[in-house]
Structure formats: structure tokens, C-alpha cells
């Protein structure tokens, strides 16, 4: 009879550990989802700002059609991207195109002095800072989640419950492109 109680006790402990691990992993997964939603809000604001910026630049630098088209194409690609990996890649392309667009202001003093352009560029800079902060928060949430599914006892149950590793929102291979200073030639 005492063996039965011991087996029952072990089963109860295992069930408790499974429930506890599951609940913790659900909370971590929700945090990752919420962090990605925060990034998405900031990116939507940036996407909404871009047409105004392009229209302002178009008035001063209409013959820079290629750069303007690149920005619009990158924006459309970024808006249709799904999931952290695709969004990250598309946003990196958009950041590069925006960098080239902002660099145009150096070649057009009237554009650079335009109050509307200055306001839009300032808003864009503020959004870029918010996006960077949101990325850091997201990556921290992903790191905690990935660590959580690898730690014991959750590692015993994570696969059974369908919890898999999540990807970071990283600059990846395009890091050199994004960090490169745009060349301005007169």
C-alpha cells in the first residue's frame, strides 16, 4: 500500500511540474507576442510617415526618382512581411532606402531647410529610436522564452506542449548595409 502512495505522490509531483512549466512557458510566449506587437505598432507609424516624407522630397528632388521608388517599394515589402524574420529583413531594406532618402537632403539645401522635411525627419528619427528600444525588448523576451524552454523541468515538457525556439529580431547579414554611412556626393 505504501508503494501505491509513493507512486501516486510521484505522479502528482510530475503533473504539478508539468502544469507549472506549461503556465510559465505560456506566459513567456505571450510576452514575446506582446513585444512583437509593440514593434509592429512602431513600424506601422514609420510606414505611415514615409509617404509624407517621399512627397516632401519629391517636390525638391523629382529627378531622384530611383531613390524615391526604392523607398516606396521597400515600404510596401515591409508592410506585407509576416513574422519576425521576414519583418526584420524587410525593415532592414527599408532602413537602408530611408538612409539614402535622408542623405538626399544634403544635396538639396532648400529641402534640408524645409520646415516640413525637418519635422518629418525628426519624427522619423524619434520612431527609429522607439523601434530600436522595442527590438531590444522583443529580443530580451525571446531570450527569456528560449532559455525557459531549455531549462529543467520545462525542457522535459516543452516539446510535448509544442513550444519551439523563437527567432530574434536581428539585423543579421544586412548589418553592414544598415550600419554603412550613406555616401553623399555633390
UniProtKB/TrEMBL annotation:
<keyword id="KW-0472">Membrane</keyword>
<comment type="similarity">
    <text>Belongs to the LemA family.</text>
</comment>
<dbReference type="Pfam" id="PF04011">
    <property type="entry name" value="LemA"/>
</dbReference>
<keyword id="KW-1133">Transmembrane helix</keyword>
<dbReference type="InterPro" id="IPR007156">
    <property type="entry name" value="MamQ_LemA"/>
</dbReference>
<protein>
    <submittedName>
        <fullName>LemA family protein</fullName>
    </submittedName>
</protein>
<keyword id="KW-0812">Transmembrane</keyword>
<dbReference type="InterPro" id="IPR023353">
    <property type="entry name" value="LemA-like_dom_sf"/>
</dbReference>
Amino acid at each position: 500500500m505504501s508503494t501505491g502512495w509513493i507512486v501516486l505522490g510521484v505522479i502528482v509531483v510530475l503533473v504539478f511540474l508539468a502544469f507549472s512549466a506549461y503556465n510559465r512557458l505560456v506566459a513567456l510566449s505571450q510576452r514575446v507576442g506582446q513585444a512583437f506587437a509593440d514593434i509592429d505598432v512602431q513600424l506601422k507609424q514609420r510606414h505611415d510617415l514615409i509617404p509624407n516624407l517621399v512627397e516632401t522630397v519629391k517636390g525638391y528632388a523629382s529627378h531622384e526618382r530611383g531613390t524615391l521608388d526604392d523607398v516606396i517599394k521597400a515600404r510596401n515589402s515591409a508592410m506585407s512581411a509576416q513574422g519576425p524574420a521576414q519583418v526584420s529583413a524587410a525593415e532592414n531594406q527599408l532602413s537602408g532606402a530611408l538612409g539614402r532618402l535622408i542623405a538626399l537632403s544634403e544635396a538639396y539645401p532648400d529641402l534640408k531647410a524645409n520646415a516640413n522635411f525637418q519635422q518629418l525627419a525628426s519624427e522619423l528619427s524619434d520612431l527609429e529610436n522607439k523601434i530600436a528600444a522595442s527590438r531590444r525588448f522583443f529580443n530580451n523576451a525571446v531570450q527569456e522564452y528560449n532559455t525557459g524552454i531549455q531549462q529543467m523541468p520545462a525542457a522535459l515538457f516543452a516539446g510535448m506542449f509544442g513550444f519551439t525556439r523563437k527567432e530574434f529580431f536581428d539585423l543579421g547579414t544586412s548589418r553592414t548595409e544598415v550600419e554603412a554611412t550613406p555616401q553623399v556626393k555633390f
